[in-house]
Amino acid sequence: MPARVLDQILADPAGQSWAVLRREGQQGAEVIVGDVVDLSRLADLPRPREGEPVLALVPYRQITERGFAAHDDGTPLRVLRPAGPTAYQHLPVDELVAALPTVPVEVTDERFSVSDDDYARIVERVITEEIGTGEGANFVIRRDVLCRTGTDPALAALTWLRTLLTDERGAYWTFAVHTPGHTLVGATPERHVSVKDGRVWMNPISGTFRHPRGADPDGSVVTAAFTDFVQDTKETEELFMVVDEEMKMMAQICSDGGRITGPLLKQMAHLTHTEYLLDGSSEADVRDVLRATMFAPTVTGSPMENACSVIRRHEPGGRGYYSGVLALVDLDEEGGERLDAPILIRTAHVDDEGAITVSAGATLVRHSDPRSEVEETSAKARGMLAALGLRERRGEGYAVQLASLPGVAEALAARNETLSPFWLSPQEVRPDPDLAGRRVLVVDAEDTWTQMLAHMVRHVGMVATVRRWEDVQVADVLDPEVDLLLLGPGPGDPTRRRDPRIARLRALALARLEADRPLLAVCLSHQVLCDLAGLEISALDRPNQGVQLPVDLWGRRRLIGFYNTFVARPSAAAPVLAGRELETALHEDGKGVVALRGRGVATIQGHAESVLSRDGLVTLHGLLRHAVGAPAGGD
């Protein structure tokens, strides 16, 4: 029998590269000792061998592979491979805990990289300057707890790992990884993405309940507080927004678009989160899945591309591995590759000099309270700081099982009653004979809502192709083989006509309409058409970011999800565009234009493709039929 790999690590923690992993759903713990190589691209991730998985440390700056903005702090894309077939082993968790060191690790010089007051001011700026100007629905801005230890980082990590394995509850991965210059230890609650047997899973977690501290012998304090949390609109909206954002990713990588189950509770020692599970089928290579899903909206924001720009503007430096992923790739029984990748949150990073960084971020939405978000970052860091000896430990976990409290299951289930049944159930193609086979060019205006739109368009039998706005010229939209042009959503102010993206959308829309060819426009593109039709565009007093609203679409009442900061205002006379008079549908207060329709054209401000749109499929179906001139009544 080969020597125990764990003993090899314990004999010389600092002298080799290694990983110790406790993964949800796995029997026991996994231990790797091996060799490290740094890569440039995820595509270069080596194929694992039988019994020799590959562990990748993927930093946040890798997002630049997708062309998104990030501070380049030089943190490497690093791979750890077992140093031979006996360098990867399993062992029981209790055996691991018993063997891990218990040496005292002194941690000193604790401070925040950004003070409470400064962080609160950042929150205010993001709400005003970003969300309030249409740059996105939500953004995650981090700050760091900084401290130091004189203990060797590898030995310290093993000691802290023992504490996390003993104290923490509900973690998806509990782990320690040591490589030259970069040591990570943590207990992350959140799966980012998994791939197995042609299935893909994602697990968006949002909404944070901070367990009350202090005596609560009968559980009455936590019961009252948790009841309020479950009914809190902000917490619910946060979760729905990240589900929408991850469904955009699922629609891109999964042939069936993905399905939602939940909501569920993720209870840990210091916090409890609400979560959904998303799954779908895909034949994509695991490297492509990793690349397409960089990174979770729960740690960045939405829309993803613009969230990265907002993070770069408001965070002073790089994120290191925070909000990146660990990615374990191994082989199944048939030799196919499997992927398991948790998000790197609730994690301490230690460099070779003993400098410790524990990063935490808050999800900022339109009605965030700056002081509450300050506290949320502190609460999210608390579990890791407790393992470092800087906060009170909860060795037995939190006594009250929150999911079993009266009314909780019912309250969580009720959240789905107004969600889109399309995304909550299997999505077989159901062709509409009047639409089947027609070709749709979907223009992405820097928001991958277009992936969800394309999936729904295919559901009714149409053939959809998604292309970025920079890659679509006027000649493309005049191609006679394009039966419908669908101009998609995006961030920003539609009245900035000199902005290259807005200018391109205007040119494409006008060319299409002047050629009398069918056109459908959504959200930002709806606003662009309203502007072309001479309607006033102005900012809402309070943005509609992740809001469900009932609307009357020409006599048909629908519940639709909205993500907009700007709105078109109705005029006394019917608007006219490219020689056609347009009908308008208005919000209930009569102050905003919800939709337009005319000969060969239809638009909508809301997102029929959103998880928030209970009536999304029937609404989109009706707009598609109208735009292409199908007989009325088929939706």
Describe what you observe in this structure.
By secondary structure, the protein is an alpha+beta fold. It has two domains: 5-416, Anthranilate synthase, CATH 3.60.120; 419-628, Rossmann fold (3-Layer(aba) Sandwich). Helix content is 28%, strand content 31%. It contains 16 helices and 30 strands. The protein has a 19-stranded antiparallel sheet that branches. It has a seven-stranded mixed sheet with strand order 21-20-22-23-30-29-28, sandwiched between helices. Strands 24-25 form a two-stranded antiparallel sheet. A hairpin with a 3-residue loop joins strand 13 (259-267) and strand 14 (271-281). Helix 3 packs across helix 9, helix 6 (233-253) crosses helix 12 (449-459) and helix 14 packs across helix 15. The radius of gyration is 26 Å and the shape is globular.
Topology-level CATH name of the largest domain: Anthranilate synthase
Radius of gyration: 26 Å
**How much helix is in the residues?**
25-40%
Structural class: alpha+beta
Distance between the ends? 67 Å
Q: Approximately what portion of the residues adopt beta-strand conformation?
A: 25-35%
Shape: globular
Count of individual beta strands: 30
Give the tags.
single chain; 635 residues; alpha+beta; Anthranilate synthase; Rossmann fold; 2 domains; 19-stranded antiparallel beta sheet; seven-stranded mixed beta sheet
